[in-house]
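Lab meeting minutes (informal)
Scribe: AK
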Amino acid sequence: MAVDANELDIETIINISKKWASGMSPQQCDMYVIHSQVTKDRQVKQCLMEIENRNHNLQKLDIEKRKHEVNLRKVTALYEAEEDPDEKELLQIELDSMALDFDVFKRRKITQEKEIQSFFQWLLDEGFTADELERRLEYDPEEERKYWISRMGKQAAMDLAFQGRVGTGNLDSIAMMKEQDQKAILEIALQYSALYNVSMKKIQERLTPYIEQLEQSSDGGLPTFHGIDDSLEIGLLSELKTIKGELNAAKPSTPSLQLTYKPKVS
C-alpha cells in the first residue's frame, strides 16, 4: 500500500513533538525507582520521598511561571511604548523567546505530574491507609535490620553470579554486621546465585540447537538488538527459527517517506 505524503509533513511532526513530555513511565517508576529498594518498608519510604520531591518541583515551577508572566507583561508594555524600530524588534525577539519558555514550563509540569501520579497510584494499589503510611515514617529497628540483610544479600548475589565470589567492598560491609545477619546475607546470595545458574543453564539448553545451526552455516552472522521489540528476541535467533519453520515469514517492510526539514521563517 502506497504511503500518502499528504498525511504527514514536517510541521505536523514538529507540532506533535511539542506534545511529548519526557520523563519516567509508570513502569520505570515502579521497577527502577520504587523497586530499587529491596524491602517493602524502604519501597514505601522511597515512594513518599519521590512524591515530596516532585510536589516541591511543581510548586517551584508554578512560582517560576508566575514570575515569568510578570516579566512578560513588563516587556509587552515596553514593546507597545517603544517607537524606535530596532529597539522594538529586539523587544519582539524577547517576547518570542519568552513564549518558547512558556512551552517549556508546560512540558515540565506535565512531566512532573505524570511521574507523581505513578507514585500516588503505587501507594493506592498497595492498599495502604493514612495511618500505615504515618507509621512507615517512624524508625523501626527490625525493618532496618531486614533491609540491610536484604540489600547486602542482593549485592553479594550479584557478585557471586558474575564473579563467582563476593567482592571485597561488599564483603567488608558484611563483615561489620552481626554473625547471624552475615549468615542470612550469604544464604540469600547463594540462593539467588544457584537459582540463577540453573535458569541460565535451562535457557542455554533451549538455545543449543540454534547455536549449532549457526555454527554449521556458511554465512554466520552477528546478533543485533535492532527490531527486538517485534518478538523480544535477538534478530539472528528469529532468523534461525524462521529457517527451521518455527516463525512466520518476516513482515513486509513499510514504504519509507522522505521529508526535508526547512526551518520556519518568522
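Next up, CB showed the second protein from the same session:
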Amino acid sequence: MDLKQLVTKKSFYISERKEFISCDLRPTWRISLLVLILRLVGRGNKATRNKVHIANWALKNNEHIDSYLQYTVQKKGKRPFINLDPSMDKAIDYALYSKLVSVDNNRIKLTAEGIKIANSLIKLEVFEVEKSILLQLKPALSEDKVTKALEGK
C-alpha cells in the first residue's frame, strides 16, 4: 500500500522550503511548550498569560533566566526587559481551538486532554532542557513575582 494512502487516505504533497523554519516557530512545538509550562509551573494546571509569557521568554536563553532570578529572587540588578512573544499568543489560540486549554477567571487552564498530553511529554525524553529550566524557575514564577517583574516593582 502507498504510504500516502495509509497515512491520510487523501493525496498530499511535500514542498521544499527555501529557508529552514526554526522549531520554536512551529505551532505544534509551541503548543507542546505551552502545555508543559501550564503543567510544570502553573498552579493547579493553570496560569495567567503573563506567567506563560515570562516562562516562554526565560526559556529562550540563559541570560534571561539569570536576569529574572536576580531581579525577583535575589532582589538585585535592573528589571529584565521581558518580551511578550506573539507566537505564544497564537499557540494559546490554537490550544483553545483544539480544546487543550480553556480560559477561566483570566487564567489559561489545561483541560483533561491538555493534562494527558502534558503528562505524556513529561514521561517522554523530549523537551528535557525546557523541563529542567521550568522546574528550576517554578519557585520564582509566583503570580506576585511575575506581576512585579512586568510592572517594575
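CB comment: Residues 25-151 form one domain.
No objections, moving on.
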